[in-house]
Amino acid sequence: MNVLIVFAHPEPRSLNGALLDVAVRELKRLGHEVQVSDLYAQGWKSEVDRADFPSLADGERLQPAAASKQAFEAGTLTPDVKAEIEKLLWADVLILQFPLWWFSMPAILKGWVDRVFAYGFAYGVGEHSDKRWGDRYGDGTLKGKRAMLVVTAGGWEEHYSARGVNGPIDDLLFPINHGVLYYPGYEVLPPFVVYRVDRLDDAGFGPIAEGLRERMRTLATTAPIPYRRQNGGGYLVPSMQLRAGLENPGTSGFALHLDRARNSGQGGKPRPLGSFPRHADSGSSTVDDLAT
Ligand SMILES: Cc1cc2nc3c(=O)[nH]c(=O)nc-3n(C[C@H](O)[C@H](O)[C@H](O)COP(=O)(O)OP(=O)(O)OC[C@H]3O[C@@H](n4cnc5c(N)ncnc54)[C@H](O)[C@@H]3O)c2cc1C
Predict the structure, then answer these.
(1) Strand-pair category, 93-99 with 187-188
(2) 235 alpha carbon to ligand 1 midpoint, in Å?
(3) In the prediction, which pLDDT does 264 show?
(4) Fold assignment, 2-225+270-283
(5) Hey, which of 101, 108, 195, 284 would you mutate to test ligand 1's pocket, going by the most ligand atoms within 8 Å of its Cβ?
(6) Among 139-153, 172-186, 252-266, where is mean pLDDT lowest?
(7) Does 107 contact ligand 1 (Cβ within 6 A)?
(8) Confidence (pLDDT) at 274
(9) Is 10 helix (H, G, I), strand (E, B) or coil?
(10) Is 8 in the pocket of ligand 1 (CB under 6 A)?
(11) What is the DSSP code string of 95-149?
(12) pLDDT tens, position by position, 227-282
C-alpha cells in the first residue's frame, strides 16, 4: 500500500518524532511505500490568503471558497498545495500525526487542511439538488481510501472518558475524524491515542511503540468507525437530519451518526475505542495542569 503520514510537530527529537520513526520503519518493513509530509520541516504556510490564488485580479474581493473552486478547476492552486493533493491521490492510507494542542490539532495542520482540501477536490463535490446533497460523508474524491489519527495527549485517559471533565476523546476528535476525513470519503479507522505522555520514560515507550507497530500492521484490516453514509438513505434531504427512529436507543449528539450495525458482517470486531492508555502513575504534570 501507499501510505502518507502528515506530521505536525516542530521537534524531530520529540516523542512524536520517535513515534513517526517507529511507524515509518514498520510500514517499510512490511513492504509499503511511505511518504511523510513533515509540515514544520517543509515550512508549511498555514494561513489561507491572497497568495494562495495568484490568478485573482488585483483589487478583486477574496472569497476563499469561490477562489479555491476557481483555482482547483483552472489548475492554478499553488505548487505546495498541488504537491499535497498529488500525495493524497497517491496514498491508499492517510495518517495525520500530531500532539493534542488545546483539544485539537496544531494550527499548522489545520492550515494544511484549510489549504489542501480544496473546493472541488475535498468539498463541493457531486450533485447538490433537492434530491442529493453532494458526495460527502461516505462518498467523495477520496472514497476507497483509509485514514487514521495518531495523537499524543498530556491528559489522562480517564479525563477523556465518557464522564471525564475534558469530554470524551471520540467527541473531541469527531470534527477531524468525521468533519475532515469522512467528509471527503475516507473510511476512518479508530485513532491511536497515547495519554499522559509528558512524563513518559524509556520503559513506557516500548509498549506504546509496539501498539503503534501493531496498528501499522493492521491498517488494511482494522474495522473503520461505522459512520453513517450521508447518501445511504438515512438522512432527509435537504435538511440532512437523521430520520427519526434510526438512532440507537438513548444516543444523541455525535453518536447519532454512528451505525453500530455497519461493521457487523464484515468480520470486523465492534470498535475498540482505539486508544492506547498509559497506566503508569506519573502524577500531575505542568502541561496536564495547564490545558488538559
Ligand atoms: C500549546 C499546547 C497545548 C496543549 N493542549 C493540550 C490539550 O488540550 N490536551 C492535552 O491532553 N494535552 C495538551 N497539551 C500537552 C501535549 O499534548 C503534550 O505535551 C504532547 O502530546 C507531548 O508530545 P511531544 O511529542 O511534544 O512529547 P515530548 O515533550 O517530546 O515528550 C514527552 C515525554 O516523552 C519522553 N520521550 C520522548 N521521546 C521518547 C522516546 N523515544 N523514548 C522514551 N521517552 C521519550 C520525553 O522524555 C518526555 O518525558 C498541550 C501542549 C501544548 C504545548
Answers:
(1) unpaired
(2) 40
(3) 62
(4) Rossmann fold (3.40.50)
(5) 101
(6) 252-266
(7) no
(8) 39
(9) coil
(10) no
(11) EEEEE-BTTB--HHHHHHHHHHS-BTTTBS-S-BSSS-B-S-SS-STTTT-EEEE
(12) 999 999 999 999 999 999 999 888 999 999 999 887 665 433 433 333 444 433 32
- What is the average pLDDT value for the chain, to the nearest integer? 91
What's the gap in Å between 16 CA and the centre of ligand 1? 8
- Kindly report the protein residue whose alpha carbon is nearest to atom 51 of ligand 1: 101
Amino acid at 249: P
Distance (angstroms) between ligand 1 centre and the Cα of 197 equals: 5
Q: Which amino acid is at 231?
A: N
Angle formed at CA 60 by CA 54 and CA 65, multiple of 5 degrees: 70
Alpha helix (H) residue ranges in the chain: 15-29, 39-42, 64-74, 79-90, 107-116, 169-174, 202-217, 286-291
Ligand 1 in contact with 99 (CB < 6 A)? Answer: yes
Residue 146's Cβ-side half-sphere holds a number of Cα atoms within 13 Å equal to 19
* Cβ of residue 292 lying under 6 Å from some atom of ligand 1: yes
102 lines ligand 1 (CB under 6 A): yes
Q: What tens digit of pLDDT does each residue of 36-86 get?
A: 999 999 999 999 999 999 999 999 999 999 999 999 999 999 999 999 999
Mutate to test the pocket of ligand 1, among 7, 22, 100 (most ligand atoms within 8 A of CB): 100
Indicate the domain borders of the chain. 2-225+270-283
pLDDT above 70 coverage of the chain, percent: 90
- Of the pLDDT bands very low, low, confident and very high (cuts 50, 70, 90), residue 130 is confident
- d(CA 270, CA 144) in angstroms, rounded, equals 21
